[in-house]
Amino acid sequence: MKEGYGTLVTSHAAGLTVRLSMPVTRIDHSGRRLRVDTPAGTIEADHVVVCVPTTVLATSQIVFDPPFPDKHAAAADLPLGLADKVFLHVDRPEWPTNAHLIGKPYSACTASHRLSPFGWPIVESFFGGDCAEMLEDRDAAQFAIDELVGLLGSDWRNRFTPLTATRWRQEPYIGGSYSHARISKAAQRGVLAAPVDGRIHFAGEACHPYDFSTAHGAYETGVAAARAIIGEPAPIA
Protein backbone atom coordinates (compact mmCIF):
# COMPACT_ATOMS: atom_id res chain seq x y z
CA MET A 1 0.00 0.00 0.00
CA LYS A 2 1.09 3.57 -0.67
CA GLU A 3 1.42 4.48 3.02
CA GLY A 4 3.72 1.52 3.71
CA TYR A 5 3.63 -1.78 5.58
CA GLY A 6 3.93 -0.01 8.92
CA THR A 7 0.63 1.75 8.34
CA LEU A 8 -0.95 -1.52 7.22
CA VAL A 9 0.17 -3.33 10.39
CA THR A 10 -0.87 -0.59 12.80
CA SER A 11 -4.28 -0.27 11.12
CA HIS A 12 -4.92 -3.95 11.87
CA ALA A 13 -4.25 -3.25 15.55
CA ALA A 14 -6.52 -0.20 15.74
CA GLY A 15 -8.46 -0.20 18.99
CA LEU A 16 -6.26 -2.80 20.68
CA THR A 17 -4.00 -2.24 23.66
CA VAL A 18 -0.42 -2.66 22.44
CA ARG A 19 2.65 -2.67 24.70
CA LEU A 20 5.92 -1.91 22.93
CA SER A 21 9.46 -2.49 24.21
CA MET A 22 8.19 -5.38 26.29
CA PRO A 23 10.27 -8.38 25.15
CA VAL A 24 9.23 -11.80 26.43
CA THR A 25 12.21 -13.58 27.96
CA ARG A 26 10.66 -16.83 29.23
CA ILE A 27 7.56 -18.95 28.65
CA ASP A 28 6.90 -21.45 31.44
CA HIS A 29 4.48 -24.15 30.24
CA SER A 30 5.08 -26.60 33.09
CA GLY A 31 1.82 -25.81 34.87
CA ARG A 32 -1.88 -25.64 34.10
CA ARG A 33 -1.54 -22.05 32.90
CA LEU A 34 1.25 -20.53 30.84
CA ARG A 35 3.49 -18.01 32.57
CA VAL A 36 5.07 -15.42 30.30
CA ASP A 37 7.92 -13.34 31.74
CA THR A 38 8.35 -9.71 30.62
CA PRO A 39 10.20 -6.67 32.03
CA ALA A 40 6.86 -5.52 33.49
CA GLY A 41 6.19 -8.80 35.26
CA THR A 42 4.70 -12.21 34.54
CA ILE A 43 1.55 -12.67 32.48
CA GLU A 44 -0.60 -15.77 32.88
CA ALA A 45 -2.40 -17.08 29.80
CA ASP A 46 -4.18 -20.10 28.38
CA HIS A 47 -2.60 -19.70 24.93
CA VAL A 48 0.27 -17.79 23.38
CA VAL A 49 1.27 -17.10 19.79
CA VAL A 50 5.03 -16.88 19.34
CA CYS A 51 5.74 -14.74 16.29
CA VAL A 52 9.38 -13.66 16.33
CA PRO A 53 12.32 -13.72 13.91
CA THR A 54 14.13 -17.05 13.76
CA THR A 55 17.22 -15.40 15.24
CA VAL A 56 15.33 -14.88 18.52
CA LEU A 57 14.55 -18.60 18.83
CA ALA A 58 17.88 -19.86 17.50
CA THR A 59 19.79 -17.85 20.12
CA SER A 60 17.33 -18.65 22.95
CA GLN A 61 16.40 -15.02 23.57
CA ILE A 62 13.09 -16.58 24.63
CA VAL A 63 13.59 -19.46 27.07
CA PHE A 64 10.98 -22.23 27.06
CA ASP A 65 10.55 -24.12 30.32
CA PRO A 66 10.64 -27.08 29.74
CA PRO A 67 12.81 -26.47 26.65
CA PHE A 68 11.96 -27.04 22.99
CA PRO A 69 15.24 -28.18 21.40
CA ASP A 70 13.45 -29.03 18.13
CA LYS A 71 12.20 -25.45 17.82
CA HIS A 72 15.65 -23.97 18.40
CA ALA A 73 17.17 -26.37 15.86
CA ALA A 74 14.49 -25.56 13.29
CA ALA A 75 15.01 -21.83 13.75
CA ALA A 76 18.78 -22.27 13.33
CA ASP A 77 18.12 -24.08 10.04
CA LEU A 78 15.99 -21.14 8.86
CA PRO A 79 18.37 -18.19 9.34
CA LEU A 80 17.78 -14.63 8.23
CA GLY A 81 19.45 -13.17 5.18
CA LEU A 82 19.88 -9.44 4.76
CA ALA A 83 18.25 -6.79 2.60
CA ASP A 84 18.50 -3.10 3.45
CA LYS A 85 17.15 0.11 1.94
CA VAL A 86 18.27 3.72 1.76
CA PHE A 87 15.86 6.57 1.06
CA LEU A 88 17.00 9.82 -0.53
CA HIS A 89 15.09 13.03 -1.17
CA VAL A 90 15.52 14.35 -4.72
CA ASP A 91 15.43 18.01 -5.67
CA ARG A 92 13.57 18.35 -9.00
CA PRO A 93 13.48 14.73 -10.21
CA GLU A 94 13.67 14.38 -14.00
CA TRP A 95 12.23 10.92 -14.58
CA PRO A 96 8.81 9.29 -14.76
CA THR A 97 7.08 7.76 -11.73
CA ASN A 98 8.46 4.34 -10.75
CA ALA A 99 11.49 4.55 -13.01
CA HIS A 100 14.42 2.23 -12.24
CA LEU A 101 18.20 2.17 -12.39
CA ILE A 102 20.83 -0.46 -11.56
CA GLY A 103 23.95 1.10 -10.13
CA LYS A 104 26.72 -1.14 -11.49
CA PRO A 105 25.32 -4.28 -13.15
CA TYR A 106 28.75 -5.93 -13.35
CA SER A 107 29.66 -5.32 -9.72
CA ALA A 108 28.94 -7.76 -6.89
CA CYS A 109 28.07 -4.82 -4.64
CA THR A 110 25.56 -2.46 -6.16
CA ALA A 111 22.07 -1.13 -5.55
CA SER A 112 18.73 -1.34 -7.29
CA HIS A 113 17.41 2.23 -7.38
CA ARG A 114 13.66 2.82 -7.59
CA LEU A 115 13.03 6.37 -8.76
CA SER A 116 10.02 8.40 -7.58
CA PRO A 117 7.83 5.57 -6.26
CA PHE A 118 4.18 6.70 -6.20
CA GLY A 119 5.37 9.95 -7.76
CA TRP A 120 7.17 11.06 -4.61
CA PRO A 121 10.45 13.04 -4.96
CA ILE A 122 12.54 10.24 -3.47
CA VAL A 123 14.86 7.40 -4.48
CA GLU A 124 14.53 4.02 -2.79
CA SER A 125 17.87 2.19 -3.03
CA PHE A 126 17.88 -1.53 -2.27
CA PHE A 127 20.93 -3.58 -1.22
CA GLY A 128 21.11 -7.29 -0.51
CA GLY A 129 23.39 -10.12 0.57
CA ASP A 130 27.08 -9.53 1.19
CA CYS A 131 26.79 -5.99 -0.15
CA ALA A 132 24.15 -5.13 2.46
CA GLU A 133 26.29 -6.76 5.17
CA MET A 134 29.25 -4.58 4.23
CA LEU A 135 27.22 -1.38 4.07
CA GLU A 136 25.61 -1.85 7.50
CA ASP A 137 28.89 -0.58 8.97
CA ARG A 138 29.44 2.09 6.32
CA ASP A 139 27.61 5.08 4.89
CA ALA A 140 25.07 3.31 2.68
CA ALA A 141 23.43 6.61 1.72
CA GLN A 142 26.71 7.98 0.41
CA PHE A 143 27.28 4.74 -1.50
CA ALA A 144 23.86 5.12 -3.15
CA ILE A 145 24.48 8.77 -4.01
CA ASP A 146 27.87 7.95 -5.53
CA GLU A 147 26.26 5.30 -7.74
CA LEU A 148 23.49 7.63 -8.88
CA VAL A 149 25.91 10.46 -9.61
CA GLY A 150 27.99 8.01 -11.66
CA LEU A 151 24.91 7.28 -13.76
CA LEU A 152 23.33 10.74 -13.93
CA GLY A 153 26.27 13.15 -13.78
CA SER A 154 28.07 15.24 -11.17
CA ASP A 155 25.44 18.00 -11.23
CA TRP A 156 23.10 15.63 -9.36
CA ARG A 157 25.23 15.26 -6.23
CA ASN A 158 23.74 18.30 -4.48
CA ARG A 159 20.22 17.26 -5.43
CA PHE A 160 20.20 14.16 -3.20
CA THR A 161 19.58 14.40 0.55
CA PRO A 162 19.66 11.28 2.77
CA LEU A 163 16.38 10.66 4.60
CA THR A 164 16.73 7.32 6.38
CA ALA A 165 18.22 3.85 6.04
CA THR A 166 17.52 0.41 7.45
CA ARG A 167 20.12 -1.68 9.26
CA TRP A 168 18.20 -4.88 9.96
CA ARG A 169 21.19 -6.90 11.13
CA GLN A 170 21.71 -4.39 13.94
CA GLU A 171 18.11 -4.44 15.20
CA PRO A 172 18.37 -6.17 18.63
CA TYR A 173 15.13 -8.17 18.41
CA ILE A 174 15.39 -8.95 14.69
CA GLY A 175 18.97 -9.44 13.50
CA GLY A 176 18.32 -9.76 9.78
CA SER A 177 15.71 -9.68 7.05
CA TYR A 178 13.97 -12.54 5.24
CA SER A 179 14.35 -16.15 6.34
CA HIS A 180 15.76 -18.84 4.08
CA ALA A 181 16.15 -22.58 4.54
CA ARG A 182 19.59 -24.11 4.62
CA ILE A 183 20.22 -26.78 2.00
CA SER A 184 17.91 -29.77 2.55
CA LYS A 185 16.28 -28.08 5.58
CA ALA A 186 13.04 -26.73 4.06
CA ALA A 187 11.00 -29.25 6.06
CA GLN A 188 12.09 -27.42 9.21
CA ARG A 189 9.44 -24.81 8.43
CA GLY A 190 6.82 -27.37 9.40
CA VAL A 191 8.69 -28.24 12.59
CA LEU A 192 8.88 -24.56 13.54
CA ALA A 193 5.20 -23.97 12.78
CA ALA A 194 3.80 -26.96 14.70
CA PRO A 195 1.86 -25.98 17.86
CA VAL A 196 2.86 -27.51 21.20
CA ASP A 197 0.30 -29.01 23.57
CA GLY A 198 -2.48 -27.07 21.86
CA ARG A 199 -1.40 -24.02 23.88
CA ILE A 200 1.77 -22.63 22.33
CA HIS A 201 1.36 -21.62 18.69
CA PHE A 202 4.00 -20.37 16.28
CA ALA A 203 3.59 -17.91 13.42
CA GLY A 204 5.65 -15.71 11.12
CA GLU A 205 6.93 -15.82 7.57
CA ALA A 206 9.48 -18.54 8.37
CA CYS A 207 6.60 -20.85 9.35
CA HIS A 208 4.84 -20.65 5.99
CA PRO A 209 5.44 -23.69 3.73
CA TYR A 210 5.68 -21.68 0.50
CA ASP A 211 4.98 -17.97 1.11
CA PHE A 212 7.99 -17.58 3.41
CA SER A 213 9.90 -14.29 3.22
CA THR A 214 6.65 -12.37 2.62
CA ALA A 215 4.36 -10.20 4.70
CA HIS A 216 1.27 -12.03 3.48
CA GLY A 217 2.85 -15.36 4.44
CA ALA A 218 3.41 -14.07 7.97
CA TYR A 219 -0.15 -12.76 8.09
CA GLU A 220 -1.63 -16.10 6.99
CA THR A 221 0.25 -18.03 9.66
CA GLY A 222 -0.91 -15.58 12.30
CA VAL A 223 -4.54 -15.93 11.23
CA ALA A 224 -4.21 -19.73 11.23
CA ALA A 225 -2.79 -19.66 14.78
CA ALA A 226 -5.57 -17.38 16.02
CA ARG A 227 -8.26 -19.56 14.45
CA ALA A 228 -6.76 -22.66 16.02
CA ILE A 229 -6.95 -20.99 19.44
CA ILE A 230 -10.64 -20.09 19.06
CA GLY A 231 -11.50 -23.51 17.69
CA GLU A 232 -11.72 -22.71 13.98
CA PRO A 233 -8.78 -24.60 12.48
CA ALA A 234 -7.77 -23.26 9.10
CA PRO A 235 -4.67 -25.15 7.98
CA ILE A 236 -2.57 -23.46 5.32
CA ALA A 237 -2.86 -25.44 2.09
- The share of residues in helices is 25-40%
Structural class: alpha+beta
Give the tally of β-strands. Answer: 11
Report the radius of gyration as a whole number of Å: 21 Å
Average residue-wise pLDDT: 94
Euclidean distance between termini CA atoms:
26 Å
Largest sheet: 5 strands, antiparallel
Proportion in β-strands = 15-25%
**Helix count from the secondary structure assignment:** 7
**Can you list the strand order of the major beta sheet?**
7-8-9-6-10
Tertiary shape: elongated
Low-confidence stretches: none
Give me the strand/helix succession: HEEEEHEHEEEEHHEHEH
Q: What is the subunit arrangement here?
A: single chain
Structure description:
By secondary structure, the chain is α+β, with helices and mostly antiparallel strands. The protein contains seven helices and eleven strands. The protein has helices at 5-12, 54-58, 69-76, 129-135, 140-152, 188-193, 215-229, and strands spanning 26-28, 34-38, 41-45, 48-50, 63-65, 83-90, 99-102, 112-115, 122-128, 160-165, 200-202. The strands form three sheets. A five-stranded antiparallel sheet has the order 7-8-9-6-10. The chain has a four-stranded mixed sheet with strand order 3-2-1-5, with no helix packed on it. A hairpin with a 5-residue loop joins strand 1 and strand 2. It starts with a helix and ends in an 8-residue tail after the last helix. The model has no long low-confidence stretch (mean pLDDT 94).
